[in-house]
């Protein structure tokens, strides 16, 4: 906690050294990091809303690259995040695992793989080589350093069916915009996909079978914090340790943001209002300010 000291002008009758010193404590601030993926925007803003309104801390959110997500916690520059996709981000996690604290999953049952519309009449990655022209020879991806992009590059090396394909980099937003446009025209499209994500609530999509097992069958999203947070802010640490939700909950927040054009702050506030029992469960046995 930072302290600000100020010395007002001394009264004429006061002797030197008798000045009155006012010390004002700064409001404690929790600094969270996240990656600009829709699922992480939803979870981070819900967590921030609770820390600010239920625990009484100021919250500062920073969108960062995937590399900086782990680096900032390992260096102690930021307090925590709820965006640790494991084992998808294993290389980043392992690099910094000695200097961060993993509180365990806040979501279990993540999936990732290559995704196509239900109207596309194929079911396996092995079939893609026969339909390169229909797909325009492209797999629509996201940020180049994302874990799913690393795994997709590996899949392109392992599957002969993907030899003629190009992996297009972009972002979560550009991927879903391209997907939306394809659905409007009933065009064939392949995207890098993962669960949880709102696109599965908005469109009929399917994962392609992965007979070589390149993609993770099932994983988790972990809550990870800096060392020392438990001692510095025990209420925040314990809340983050308790935080856990399912696909319906995170999907609802994502849909409010994307489909109803709500701000992340408003969507998080609405979620808290509509799910008081879950919020109470997250805050169980935690001293609130």
From TrEMBL:
GO molecular function, one term: amine transmembrane transporter activity
Pfam family name, one: OpuAC
One BP term from GO: choline transport
Protein name from the UniProt record: Glycine betaine/proline transport system substrate-binding protein
Residue spans of biased composition, Acidic residues class: 10-21
UniProt keyword list: Cell membrane, Membrane, Transport
InterPro entries: ABC_Gly_betaine_transp_sub-bd
Domain ABC-type glycine betaine transport system substrate-binding, first and last residues per copy: 29-274
Subcellular location: Cell membrane
GO cellular component, one term: ATP-binding cassette (ABC) transporter complex
Organism: Halarsenatibacter silvermanii
